[in-house]
Amino acid sequence: METFLLFKDLIGKHVYPSDWMAMIMVQNRVFLRAINTYADTMNLKFLNNNDFEVQLWNNYFHLAVAFITQESLQLQHFSSTKRNKILTKYGDMRRLIGFAIRDMWYKLGGNKICFIPGMVGPILEMTLIPEEELRRATIPIFFDMMQCEHTVSTHFHKFENEIILKLDHEVEGGGGDERYMELLETILLECAVARPLLRPEVEHFVTLVKGLLVRLLDYRTVMSDDSRNNRMSCTVNLLNFYKDINREGMYIRYLYKLRDLHLDVENYTEAAYTLLLHSRLLKWSDDQCSPQFEVRSCQTQRQLKETLYDKIIGHFDKGKVS
């Protein structure tokens, strides 16, 4: 466990300057060999129920994902000459560790449930790497996670919620593309064919995630667009989508993004109406409310509603003046 933590720390801290590619690749090759050696020991000594160590396996998965997603291995960002040189000398280490993560996951058996939803985000991050074979090898892990949670709980709500939450974050950060959306749909539906009882829920999930991905990719594209109307339109599409699927936290997140777009161009009246949508979700009660953005000081729904109304009135006043 200490070695895993040390390796993860070294990967994150960039021991060598980014242009020392030979040293970085040698270091990565050593890490890869060591991680795979440790994995063999884990399978021998810490896999059976009596000896199973959740934290050790958790550390392994997080280290392996940190390794596979590190900047120095993202070959798509390099020139073709540099990429070919790396592939010739070292191979694509992302594939090697990705296949190892997949194999280690399937060895977990009944212990898989310990890693749902905790490992959903890291596995998602790995599947978003734009490497076709890696994606084909690792996307089926999602179906396995669904099956696993469904067996225990007769649903896979935890998995679904985590995917939606993390997908939003990852796509906004630059991950994902049209091809990923196609592969995700094809692979999950193919996996579901053998499980007729689970198939309707998987189909619903695929439709949901595909709808979200389309909107997130559109949103990411227009955020670099000069057209303010396009940005507002895509933001509204996303917040309405989250409202329709009852994801209140994400709906509110995009309400505030829309509010900011209005304030950027001094549309104070529209900003006020946007905040009004949030205020309508709150009750005049002393129920606790989850902290929301800049109003973290509010403990109860009543306090938050009052604070929002103060802001709304302020925006309406500014809108009237302008």
UniProtKB/TrEMBL annotation:
GO cellular component: cytoplasm; plasma membrane
GO molecular function: guanyl-nucleotide exchange factor activity; small GTPase binding
GO BP term (any one): small GTPase-mediated signal transduction
Ranges for domain DOCKER: 242-322
A Pfam match: TPR_DOCK
InterPro entries xref list: DOCK, DOCK_C_lobe_A, DOCKER_dom, DOCKER_Lobe_A, TPR_DOCK
Keywords: Guanine-nucleotide releasing factor
Membership in a protein family: Belongs to the DOCK family.
Entry protein name: DOCKER domain-containing protein
